[in-house]
Specification:
The protein is of the alpha/beta class and about 300 residues long. The chain is built from eleven helices and ten strands. The strands form two sheets. Strands 1-2-5-6-7-8-9-10 form an eight-stranded mixed β-sheet, with helices on both faces. It has a two-stranded parallel sheet with strand order 3-4.
Length: about 300
């Protein structure tokens, strides 16, 4: 039975967002009607990232067609597509001075391509206005539509990311509209389509998984040729979401990071506050991603 865990351990305590850069980015996002996963998913690292002028853009609106038990993003009837959004993301990237940008989205299962064309358009616009910027995409599974995936991969992102989120046994509870093997197949197919583009995926701990299941998940990820792995602590967004079964210690996270490295991943980022897009440039740098800029920000 899950424990009621309201008091976070010291290693999970972070500062509330504030400061000049935070306010500047908030105003920029509002002025261009853009969404960030930082805000919508209530990321604990938002204050730090925004203070350093980095953020993860969330395209295709702020309402998701799925109802994952861990996610703070709103579920319901999705918004109309704003086809000016790809250009606005590119313009914001330029204004923020980003040399490495992360683009994700809500699930849009009602669309024939799941929003793949919007990802491709966003990649092209960023390249047009920011030719030296590397682009990481964190996509949905497109319901296993490999033609939709091909649209994204033909736009040649610098890194392709899709999160598996949890172990196979917990999928029906954690990701009821997703399929464990389908997520792994999407990642493997992305690598097959563009062998030089590194693939990345992440998962959470603290939802009731066992040690051997975590190692099995890492093994499955490696077997599907994933290059970069992120492992972080699940944090309950509200009482309507899945309860936290336990807080995983920093020592355990380090152990799983070590196991992953021994399995042959190019890089494993493992820690309580690790998120897919947290220090994304640093993760890519550690994995020796080709054509990566020397800094995630303009330095001159």
């Amino acid at each position: 039975m899950a424990m009621t865990l309201e008091r976070r351990p010291d290693w999970l305590k972070v500062r509330a967002p504030s400061g000049e850069n935070y306010e500047e980015l908030r105003q920029l996002m509002r002025s261009k009607a853009l969404h960030t996963v930082c805000e919508e998913a209530r990321c604990p690292n938002m204050g730090e990232c925004w203070a350093h002028r980095t953020a993860t853009f969330m395209i295709l609106g702020s309402v998701c067609t799925r109802s994952c038990g861990f996610c703070a993003v709103a579920t319901g009837r999705p918004m109309a597509i704003d086809w000016e959004e790809p250009r606005h993301v590119a313009e914001a990237t330029k204004q923020m001075g980003l040399r490495h940008v992360v683009v994700t989205s809500v699930n849009r299962d009602e669309m024939a391509d799941g929003g793949a064309s919007a990802f491709a358009a966003t990649i092209r616009w960023i390249r047009r206005l920011n030719p030296e910027t590397s682009i990481e995409v964190l996509t949905p599974d497109f319901k296993g539509n490999m033609d939709a995936l091909r649209v994204v991969m033909e736009a040649k992102p610098s890194i392709f990311n899709h999160n598996v989120e949890t172990i196979a046994r917990l999928y029906k509870r954690v990701r009821p509209q997703a399929i464990y093997q389908r997520s792994l197949d999407v990642l493997a197919k992305a690598k097959e389509m563009q062998p030089t583009v590194p693939t990345k995926s992440g998962f959470m701990l603290g939802l009731g998984e066992e040690r051997d299941e975590i190692i099995q998940l890492l093994g499955d990820m490696r077997a599907h040729h994933i290059d970069i792995v992120t492992i972080g602590q699940y944090l309950r967004p509200s009482l309507d979401h899945l309860p936290i079964e336990r807080y995983v210690t920093p020592e355990e996270f380090r152990e799983y990071g070590k196991i992953g490295k021994e399995m042959g991943f190019r890089h494993v980022e493992s820690g309580p506050l690790v998120r897919s897009s947290y220090h994304a440039w640093d993760q890519a740098k550690a994995a020796d991603v080709p054509d990566l800029p020397d800094s995630p920000l303009v330095t001159h």
